[in-house]
Amino acid sequence: MPMHLITGGAGFVGVNLARRLLASGERIVVVDDLSRGQRAFLREFDRSPLFSFVQLDCADAEAFINGIRSLDAGSIDEIWHLAANSDIPGGVADPSVDLNRTFMTTFATLVLMRDLAIPVLHFASSSAVYGDLKDAAISELSGPPEPISNYGAMKLASEAQIRAAVESFLKRANIFRFPNVIGLPATHGVLLDLVRKARRTPSGFDVLGDGTQQKIYLHVDDLVDAMLRIRERAAGGYNVFNIGPADEGVTVREIAEAVRDRVAPRATIRFGTGDRGWVGDVPRFRYDIGKLASLGWRPTMDSKAAIKRAVEQVAAQESGT
Amino acid sequence: MPMHLITGGAGFVGVNLARRLLASGERIVVVDDLSRGQRAFLREFDRSPLFSFVQLDCADAEAFINGIRSLDAGSIDEIWHLAANSDIPGGVADPSVDLNRTFMTTFATLVLMRDLAIPVLHFASSSAVYGDLKDAAISELSGPPEPISNYGAMKLASEAQIRAAVESFLKRANIFRFPNVIGLPATHGVLLDLVRKARRTPSGFDVLGDGTQQKIYLHVDDLVDAMLRIRERAAGGYNVFNIGPADEGVTVREIAEAVRDRVAPRATIRFGTGDRGWVGDVPRFRYDIGKLASLGWRPTMDSKAAIKRAVEQVAAQESGT
Asked: Which of B95, B141, B157 sits opposite A144 (nearest CB)?
């Protein structure tokens, strides 16, 4: 069975991917510096002989290579590069955050792949690479991409490095352009923030912006399913895929109301002003997922259904039940 | 008059830009680490009260800021960011070259601009960001860009950073996508290589590839003219412009023959094999320069005329006349 390495594998998406790969009998090594990911998320895998964990910062190319060599896990066939900054406003305030956590982790991952002759890379990119395009529905050919946050810029910059590496030494790379992703374990994002606020002050809570911001959401179960589908069926050496629902998304108001209804039914929701939460926030877009649909994949939940399920899951997570 | 800072200003393009700005009575600070640029190229400006030079590596954000602060030249209005790796095959062999010289110099330049509230950036990008597109003529909207060299990847990655900075704190950025540029002082590139080979062994010299590689060339006089035109007339906050001739370019064979005719008329030209000189080399493309033409600019020399003039100039440079 193939050996997989997952960078950032103790984070939200990584844990879900690890679970699926292990369930298929594949071997995995998770690498994470545990700056945001949590070792506890991986406890369920500790008894599996197919699972290993290494704590290191994969932005440090030398530490990364030494860590993998010392593991002596045999040759690695595929890397899933998920390690990245996930705090968009944080990266606007301090550009070194996206530089180190997103861009330099990609750089070091590629150095590792060249040095150890690892042929296949899967990369968690983002809809943020497109910036604020005015297209009715954004396809992989929309653009040109003009990211308006450092977060998006360093994702696009990472894609560019990977593209050049495919020309030079990588056999295959799949680029996944994620939308907002929700589910368990919830570690960050608007839904978790709102659930926590509503639990803290059940009488009422604040929402950033005027509530009209509309975004598309994908449940992590659907996301991992799409990633594995692309891995299995995409044919080219360098493949870029939008992953998401095809709908128009849900507004922050709708999310806040769903959270209120589940967590604090008597809460007053207080909205702010403006249709952007922060610099670099893209207020509204739709995905064209025709390319991914051509591989036979469809999400099982649209944005509304994904939010509904995730509100339930996150509320349960936060109440410890 | 405005105060300009030119990174990499002791290099080929920088020297030509500095000369034009000084001739217009504008003040300039040249920053260069002299790793490839030469202090001697700037000697002609040393008597000008409008000119200053600081030797430092602008990939080092702290050294960069301290160097500019200690200069006490007054506030800087515009930066022309030209510092970059210019050795494409070198960047394929060692990815840290384009990382440090191209990408990190851009990162540090943006840190400087934010800290010192410098509002306007001009950036020397490259046709290499497009990769090997099959379009008949490449416009700024062609793509999506898929660079096939680290050189092109780090140029695109730099553009992405700059785009995000415009959203956050920069007032204006002009992105110049250069083609191959030739003229004086010649410091690198196929034309200089061939002139040197022909001078060394006038009986015959080797050419990389089969000679059918065809590229477009712009004379540096036209290039600087276009950069200043864009600076003056481009209207938006973030402007991307192809700069080049609109023709189909000239082949390596034609360049080799022009060099032979001027430098070593009895030389035998020995061609190699393959239509690419190295990994990441794009064999052939044409530019659509309609966007730049709409600002009223046209090159005075097409590729053939630019090569003819530059062969004459470079041959004279190398013979010391």
From this structure: B141
